[in-house]
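Hey, quick one: can you model this chain's 3D structure?
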Amino acid sequence: MNKHLNELIELSKIDQAIDSYNPQLEAADKKVAKVQKKIDTAQAELDELTSAIADNEEKVKSFEEQLTLLNEQLASNVKKAKEITTEKEMKALSLEEDIAKEKMTFANEEIERLQAINETKTALLDEANEKVDALSADLNKIMEEVSAEKAEIEKSKGELFVKREELSRNIEQKVLSFYEKIRAWAGNTAVVPVKKQACYGCYMKLNDKTYSEVIKGDEIVNCPHCGRILYIEKVTEEA
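Sure thing. Here's the predicted structure for all 239 residues.
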């Protein structure tokens, strides 16, 4: 087989091996992203609960201030009652007291309701905090595992890059440029085998003349349909 073709086949296989690690790296990153997404969701729930509790506490505080003012109003009305001289003034004062008492009843009921809600939300908040802590612990563990996994992958890729660099230095520059141009659009299918007289890049059948040239392997042959570099695998040759 042509020396340059052999070199390109080997180079193509190294490139395929290098790129084969990309899905593993992506899968490793997805593991981290998956847990991080869960943490973000749990943290959002926690923040929402914290905000709701704080809002309710502000409302309770507002109702308590309202009760203080209403109590002061009722105390003031007791003094006013002693100074009343007409029935009309007595009715007006009585109506004012009734309204104040209704407001106090409503305020007390609202305080009780909001405090009950906050009790429930506080329990949920504790659960949310525990969930975030547990997920954060999981994330740290997964990040350690992923970091080790990626380091191993990068080490293997580094070894392949060294092999690629050594091989590239020995390939004639014109041949290497020719390969890189095809690889720019064909990716890791720049060099493909021929099986059943078909290019395994575009799967189009080759004419007899081209197929014969590929079998001989004396020259670098391109697929007439897609332009990829063709070769016959050794197993096929032996068969």
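One thing worth noting: The chain has two domains: 19-171, 174-238.
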